[in-house]
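Hey, weird one. I pasted the Nitrite reductase/ring-hydroxylating ferredoxin subunit sequence into the form twice and got a warning about non-standard characters only the second time. First submission, copied straight from the form history:
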Amino acid sequence: MTEAATTAPQPDPSAASALPLATSLAEGGLAARFNTPEGVPAFAVRWQGAVHAYLNQCPHAGGPLDFEGQVLESSGRFLMCARHGAIFEPDTGKCVGGPCRGARLTPVAVHEKADGSVWPGAAG
Ligand code: FES
């Protein structure tokens, strides 16, 4: 019995401490805000079924886009900066209206697992 206890698989401490960025993201719902491994604020949002993530830095004045996690504008078609109203394509991050038209948000790699949880980095 003692031998079984010493040879039983042990949890990977790094895996045990890893947490998802979000346990789920609702279509059209609030963004999940998180920090990149470098400590830069970012957000992830679900749009048309897919999860998209960007640094939470508007190309116009550099401030955060969201207001308390709200980053999709009321129609749900665009991400909108809460500071001066720039709008962005959710799937490309391209600014298509407002003071930074033509600029882009900086994408952040995330991936979604089968249970709907969202994790940092590309799927591996
Ligand atoms: S800071 Fe985003 S539009 Fe000005």
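That's the output from the first submission. The warning seems to come from a hidden character in my clipboard, not from the data itself. The domain at 30-124 is CATH 2.102.10.10 (Rieske Iron-sulfur Protein).
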